[in-house]
Design brief:
two-stranded antiparallel sheet; two-stranded parallel sheet; 61% helix; mainly alpha; 18 helices; elongated; Fumarase C, Chain A, domain 2
């Protein structure tokens, strides 16, 4: 008989902690219950040392180790307190007494509330996750895109607008579009600062004022927050406003949207045969159709990014709203941040794997271009207009609207244009010349990406 209490990935309620848990272990130091306990305990210790020094004029330093056994003790304490941070506080008091530092016990959380500790801890964990997990993921994606963009910077292909063959671009330039967009948003993402509070139960420093009214507690509070690498927030109630966190989440949502656009485009390029998915001999693409090699990594990334962004949007809209000086809904909501983070990271990994398995089919791209020479008609129009054929747009529209032209038909059309023969020869030559600008855009994208992501 199955015992559902047995810890096993097969019993996990989500694929993040189930079948994909081995891919997301790097998030555990930031979003696991153990990590949340450890960081809050660390902030408590920092606060004890800071307020003791501030009040007594004596510096003190001690190290608080934290093990899995310690976390289990806190969990046991919480069953009695029914308050997670109070359990951590009790653990710290017990630890100080054990270290013969009992004289510090009165300073534990003196004048502040749980959300002062929580706001600092959450901000620090998110900042560390950004540096240690998210940015390395973006670097891997960017490196993959750089290689693809540079390899295909001169691969001329049909550009489609409204799904219709419209103009000319290069495959590499289209990849570079994603790189440039990512650069802009990642630059903003990395610049965002997290705010936190240390101003007491309702943000008025009432508790600290009661400790000793002769001290400048606002300066003490600000210095403590800045010492944690954060920005002090004075617009606080029981909680620190989530505005800086929301900016972080919304920026991540935009990064995901850019990547979502990329993976959907890659899927469409697979559809039209411009790219193929490399075969792996040991794998199968379908239980019933042995010939299939599917773009599953782009599809998986698409589903993950869409789901993550739905959660990020919900977090961004709910966290900034809190009734009066505090309701408890935000505590439940913010514990869900691990879900969009896990889905995003899993999607980033899939994108890298998907690009690695891509093979650009230049023959198919060239064949498509040969079948759709009408994509050069904007160039024809611009050339002729500049040389005095004012009604060239209407002339071309009458001749070509809704039609597909091959190379011979395009040449015949040029011969019919009412311009001098030498201009027709010049136009034909122009149509065969390489447009240098797509490659320049690729070079710009590579340069900016390396600068922004420090590659």
């Amino acid at each position: 008989m199955i015992s559902w209490e047995t810890p096993d990935p097969l019993f996990a309620l989500t694929h993040l902690d189930g079948r994909n848990s081995h891919k997301l272990m790097m998030l555990r130091p930031y979003f696991s219950e153990f990590a949340w306990m450890k960081m809050r305990l660390s902030v408590m210790v920092d606060y004890v040392m800071a307020i003791y020094t501030f009040l007594e004029g004596k510096k003190i330093s001690f190290v608080q180790d934290f093990s899995l056994a310690d976390a289990r003790k806190i969990t046991a304490m919480e069953t009695k307190t029914n308050h997670d941070l109070k359990a951590i506080e009790q653990f710290l008091v017990f630890s100080l007494q054990k270290k013969k530092l009992g004289f510090l016990v009165p300073y534990v959380n003196l004048g502040i509330g749980s959300e002062d500790i929580n706001s600092v801890a959450l901000a620090k964990l998110l900042g560390e996750c950004r540096e240690s997990v998210l940015l390395p993921c973006f670097q891997k994606i960017a490196l993959s895109l750089i290689v693809l963009a540079q390899a295909e910077k001169d691969t001329i292909m049909v550009a489609r607008t409204h799904a219709i063959a419209a103009n000319v671009t290069t495959f590499g330039k289209e990849v570079a579009n994603s790189l440039l967009r990512l650069c802009d948003e990642i630059k903003l993402f990395t610049s965002l600062k997290f705010s936190a509070k240390c101003t007491g139960e309702v943000g008025s420093l009432q508790g600290l004022f009661a400790v000793d009214g002769d001290h400048d507690w606002l300066s003490f509070s600000d210095n403590f927050i800045r010492g944690s690498g954060l920005v002090p927030s004075h617009a606080a109630t029981q909680i620190a406003p989530y505005d800086s966190l929301v900016r972080f989440l919304q920026s991540l949502e935009r990064i995901n949207a850019i990547l979502l656009d990329f993976v959907q485009n890659m899927w469409l390029y697979v559809l039209v045969g411009y790219v193929r998915v490399t075969k792996v001999e040991t794998e199968v693409g379908s239980a019933g159709m042995p010939h299939k090699i599917n773009p599953i990594y782009f599809e998986g990334a698409e589903g993950g990014l869409e789901t993550a962004n739905g959660m990020l949007e919900t977090l961004s809209s709910t966290l900034p709203v809190n009734r009066l000086q505090r309701d408890f809904s935000d505590s439940t909501t913010r514990r869900s941040i691990s879900m969009p983070m896990g889905l995003s990271v899993l999607s980033y990994q899939s994108i890298v794997e998907g690009i690695k398995r891509l093979s650009v089919d230049r023959e198919v791209i060239a064949s498509s271009l040969n079948r759709h020479q009408e994509v050069y008609l904007e160039s024809v129009k611009a050339f002729c207009f500049r040389r005095g054929v004012g009604d060239i747009y209407d002339w071309l529209k009458d001749k070509t609207r809704g039609k597909t032209l091959n190379a011979k038909e395009l040449q015949h059309l040029v011969d019919e244009i009412p311009i001098d023969v030498h201009l027709k020869d010049e136009l034909k030559t122009m149509l065969t010349q390489k447009n240098p600008y797509p490659a320049q855009i690729v070079s710009e994208a590579v340069r900016r990406t390396k600068l922004v992501l420090k590659l």
